[in-house]
Amino acid sequence: MPLATAEVCDANAQSITNGELRALHPIFKIYGRRPVFAGPIATVKIFEDNVLVRELLQEKGHGRVLVIDGGGSMRCALLGGNLAQLAQNNGWAGIVVNGCIRDVDEINGCDIGVRALNSHPMKSNKKGVGEKHVAVAIAGARICDGEWLHADSDGILISTTELTV
Ligand SMILES: O=C([O-])CC(=O)C(=O)O
């Protein structure tokens, strides 16, 4: 059974105080077939350009969660049905997007967890601008590559190390 985020918070008050455990602001909508997912984080920082998202999702996921800092843009989608399918087939656990997605019905059929701000029908630029595996700041929290993400119906937690009972 995955750890419930609420129980994790109740059992780790000290980690919340010292910043080892952070909750993202509740600004994300829930997509994908997995409402509960967790894994080590890979980060990517982009703006209205998703070439690096495809590059990362082409790698084997090994249960990782891709955190996409898209700067909160409401002007195009950074993830669509093809990329979500790629993520599923390559063994990613989930994708959190500080930005928009499209092909929502296809994404909701994929066996991964997806959180995003909203949907948008337009595709992004394809220039390949951005940075992989850098620290990002989204939804009120700083997130480093290699930290852990836990998502369930109550919200999304970031922890410096894997959470255990
Ligand atoms: O290629 C894109 O920009 C995203 C997309 O539509 C998909 O993954 O199907």
TrEMBL record:
Pfam families: RraA-like. Mg(2+) binds at D103. Its EC number is 4.1.1.112, 4.1.3.17. Substrate binds at G80, G81, N82, L83, R102. It catalyses: 4-hydroxy-4-methyl-2-oxoglutarate = 2 pyruvate; oxaloacetate + H(+) = pyruvate + CO2. Its cofactor is Mg(2+); a divalent metal cation. One of its GO terms (molecular function) is metal ion binding. The keyword Metal-binding applies. Keywords: Lyase, Magnesium, Metal-binding. Homotrimer. Belongs to the class II aldolase/RraA-like family. This is 4-hydroxy-4-methyl-2-oxoglutarate aldolase. It comes from Leersia perrieri.
